[in-house]
Amino acid sequence: MSQVKTAALIVAAGRGHRAGGGLPKQYRDLGGEPVLKRTLRAFHAHPAIDTVMVVIHPDDQSYFELSNEFIGANYCYGGNTRNQSVHNGLQALSNQSPDHVLVHDAARPFVSEDLIQRLCDVLAGSDAVVPGLPITDATFTREQDAIGDSVDRGRLVRVQTPQAFHFSALLSAFETQGSGKDYPDEASLMRAAGVPVSIIEGDPANIKLTFPGDFHMTAQTGTMITVSGSGYDVHRLGLGKGIWLCGVEIPCEFELIGHSDADVGLHALVDALLGAIGAGDIGQHFPPSDPQWKGAASSAFVDHAMVLVNQAGAKVVHADITLICEQPKIGPHRSALQDRVAALLDLPPGWVNIKATTSEGLGFTGRGEGIAAQAIVTVKRHE
After folding, report:
1. Helix (H) or strand (E) holding 271
2. Distance between CA atoms of 229 and 216, rounded to whole angstroms?
3. Residues of the chain by 3-state class (helix, strand, coil), percent to 5
4. Tens of pLDDT along 216-258?
5. How far apart are the first and last CA of the chain?
6. Are the C-beta atoms of 117 and 146 separated by less than 8 Å?
7. ∠ CA(252), CA(258), CA(264), 5° rounding?
8. Distances (CA, A) of 7 to 100, 155, 177, 189, 215
9. Is the domain 6-219 a CATH 3.90.550.10 member?
């Protein structure tokens, strides 16, 4: 049986003026990054999602590119209404032939991995499924400035996105019902086309940012946490003409022996970066058995790790590296090492600390047989 191919269609072509702030709300800052970036990352990182298509307004191209950096989602331009924008997105996805599609509002950046997975699971046995939440407040009709008749809230539900559909069924509904009609959402369109829509329990945290107060509320919920990752590495010393440490070549009568440039400081740093985002270790990403890494500059490994850090929505805020060796002397080069690591991590030099120590003649480092390095990286990331 072939594997089901699932696409995420993110609707980001609206203007979002009610949210204030000058920018369309999907590009406003939320915890140090655009709202859309957090939304994209949720789908890009999910194992059930094979491709992501974003529908944007033509005027927002530059904002979108900033939000899409390190993610690489596809995009197309929207229409004058939400219905037209979603239809455009489906047509843009047609050449990828997805089996299922999840349509999601860009301004719902708190969508969880669990909700996406539950929708995908239920969609295996349904043509359409949406998440919904019960109404907990007393509900009435409105008669200008007064309340009208009471409404049985037990029969009402607040529907969220993502809304999940068989791709061909949703596209067919647009083509038969017409994208020019004003449907409040895709579930309404499917019902108009005679397709039953299932419902699952939604997620109260999956709010839609609509008004200025929504941004203030989420800013106070503390969605960022501080975590650390540690790294440790060792390389043997041999006779040579210089070594690479922390991205700086130090002339001396030794060399570090390894498959790449054997930069023990940067190797420990890479492991610390990967550890902070739960992305394994350097050997998994750059196996020493792979000939393409022979003699490679370890700065490339740091660059790769930083891409993963960005994709995880994390920001490095501090790095501390300890070099353990008898030779060469690190003191004269400390400032250069600090500046180089800071540049690789896109940090001010004062946010990087380089230390050196000996092992008092004990062990392999004490005998001058090799150099060891320890690194601790601190990052801020979303919960």
Report:
1. helix 264-276
2. 31
3. 35, 30, 35
4. 655 544 456 889 999 999 999 888 888 999 999 998 888 888 8
5. 36
6. no
7. 65
8. 6, 32, 22, 19, 28
9. yes
Relative orientation angle of helices 299-311 and 334-345, to the nearest 10 degrees: 40
Q: How many CA atoms are closer than 13 Å to the CA of 202, on its beta-carbon side? A: 23
Give the domain ranges of the chain. Answer: 6-219, 224-382
Using the predicted structure, report yes or no on whether residue 128 has a pLDDT greater than 90: yes
How far apart CA 239 and CA 75 sit, in angstroms, is 54
Write out the two tokens for 137.
């407040």
Q: What is the pLDDT of residue 383?
A: 63
CATH topology of domain 224-382: 60s Ribosomal Protein L30; Chain: A; (3.30.1330)
Task: Report the DSSP beta bridge partners of residue 163.
Answer: 103
Other beta carbons less than 10 A from residue 281's beta carbon = 13
Report pTM.
0.67
**8 Å CB contact between 11 and 86:** yes
- Segment 283-293 shows an average pLDDT of 81
Q: Is 80 exposed, middle or buried (0-12, 13-18, 19+ CB in 10 A)?
A: exposed
Q: Report the SS3 class of residue 91.
A: helix
